[in-house]
Specification:
By secondary structure, the chain is mainly alpha-helical. It has helices at 21-28, 32-41, 59-74, 79-89, 93-118, and strands at residues 48-50, 54-56.
């Protein structure tokens, strides 16, 4: 059963190692300049920088950005409040990230299963 939704936070993340800032912007429904700003405000968000200072985000960065977006835009946290929640001052932080990872894994496994059933 495939979950169909227009919400970018539930959209599955392609299985690749690195994502450009434009790809992450599309995956998370956040503009590029906002991502660059969040890098300054959230120390745990630090993409790999290579040639010419280009940013390359990994899967865990995309999940973190989706969590930051949810805290700020959906749950009404301030940047300071979101930073505190993500920094570990809130014990539920690990559970939230774990549940996102489990949801992503289930979604990817359902995709694999559907491909296998077609053969």
């Amino acid at each position: 059963m495939q979950l169909v939704t227009n919400n970018k936070s539930n959209e599955s993340i392609p299985s690749k190692r690195y994502f450009t800032i434009g790809e992450v912007s599309d995956l998370c429904d956040v503009k590029s300049h906002v991502l660059r700003y969040w890098e300054q405000e959230f120390p745990m968000l630090s993409p790999v920088k290579r040639r010419g200072n280009r940013r390359y985000y990994q899967r865990h960065d995309v999940l973190l950005i989706r969590q930051i977006r949810s805290l700020l835009y959906e749950q009404g946290y301030t940047i300071e409040g979101a930073r505190k929640k993500l920094s570990g001052e809130d014990a539920n932080n690990d559970n939230t990230l774990s549940s996102q990872l489990v949801h992503q894994l289930v979604s990817e496994l359902e995709d694999v299963l559907s491909v296998l059933k077609k053969d």
